[in-house]
Design a protein that fits this description.
0% strand; mainly alpha
Length: 118
C-alpha cells in the first residue's frame, strides 16, 4: 500500500514541471498572436481572405487570416532568397560545360573551314 501512495506523489512532482512548461508555452503563443496585430503582411489580408473563402476555409478570428498571410510571407521570402542564391551560384560558376563544348565545336568547325578554303 505504501508503494501505491508513493507513486502518486512522484507523479505529482513530475507533473509540476510539465504544467509549468504548458503554461509557458501557451503564454508564448498568446504573446505571438497578440504581436500579429502590429504586423502588416506583404500580401493584403483581403487577398488572403478571398483565397480562403474560395477554397472553402472559414476563419472566425481575423488573427487567423493574418497568421496565414504571415505564412505566405515566409514562403515568398524563402523562395526569393533561394532563387537569388541560385542566381549568384550560376554567375559565380561561369559558363556550363555544354556551352563550353559548343564554343569548342564552333572553333573546330571554323578551323576546318579555313583549312578547306586554303
Amino acid at each position: 500500500m505504501s508503494s501505491s501512495s508513493s507513486r502518486p506523489a512522484s507523479n505529482t512532482t513530475n507533473a509540476a514541471p510539465e504544467v509549468k512548461r504548458f503554461i509557458q508555452h501557451h503564454a508564448a503563443i498568446g504573446a505571438f498572436i497578440n504581436a500579429l496585430d502590429k504586423y502588416e503582411p506583404t500580401i493584403p489580408e483581403q487577398v488572403t481572405r478571398y483565397h480562403m473563402q474560395k477554397s472553402g476555409v472559414e476563419a472566425g478570428d481575423p488573427r487567423m487570416t493574418k497568421l496565414l498571410s504571415l505564412a505566405a510571407d515566409n514562403f515568398l521570402a524563402k523562395t526569393i532568397y533561394e532563387a537569388r542564391q541560385m542566381s549568384l551560384l550560376r554567375t559565380q560558376t561561369g559558363p556550363t560545360s555544354k556551352t563550353q563544348s559548343k564554343a569548342a565545336g564552333k572553333r573546330k568547325a571554323n578551323e576546318l573551314a579555313s583549312q578547306a578554303g586554303m
